[in-house]
Task: inverse folding
């Protein structure tokens, strides 16, 4: 229920602070975000790193993940990129804020509400690094999509190899 409320609040906040008048500028980055989560779910189907626990709203990981992909991700991108600062020092703070914010939600989801579980070596430290990577990649995709696809494939391959072979 906690994560359902978080995603719902994200959508409401995006309604007010998201850059809706320029949504078409962010559409490909939203699709990039969704595509790589779909790719994770496909590649790690039998070796899942983290999982949403069943609830009375969402009976399985897949349905909840689809809800997150199509509500939370667009909301995050519209707020994050739509308000991205121009000055470099503020860009670092903006990325840090978003990474720490999602880490806080992860901690609450994992430790207090127990709506998420980690598996196969995935933990809060790896997740925090992953959040930083996500927010850098979202900005990079917005500016240089082709470069981002190549870097994303490389990062995905390296991460899968490290986690698969470290925790067999």
Result:
């Amino acid at each position: 229920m906690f994560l359902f409320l978080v995603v719902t609040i994200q959508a409401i906040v995006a309604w007010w602070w998201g850059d809706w008048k320029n949504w078409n500028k962010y559409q490909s980055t939203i699709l990039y975000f969704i595509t790589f989560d779909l790719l994770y779910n496909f590649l790690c189907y039998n070796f899942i790193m983290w999982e949403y626990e069943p609830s009375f709203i969402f009976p399985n990981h897949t349905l909840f993940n689809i809800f997150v992909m199509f509500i939370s991700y667009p909301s995050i991108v519209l707020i994050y990129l739509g308000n991205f600062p121009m000055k470099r020092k503020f860009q670092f703070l903006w990325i840090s804020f978003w990474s720490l914010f999602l880490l806080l939600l992860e901690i609450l989801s994992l430790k207090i509400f127990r709506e998420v579980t980690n598996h196969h070596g995935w933990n809060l430290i790896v997740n925090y690094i992953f959040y930083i990577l996500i927010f850098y990649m979202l900005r990079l995709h917005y500016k240089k999509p082709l470069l981002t696809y190549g870097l994303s494939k490389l990062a995905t391959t390296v991460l899968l190899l490290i986690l698969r072979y470290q925790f067999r």
Q: What stands out?
A: The mean pLDDT is 93. The two ends are 33 Å apart (CA to CA).
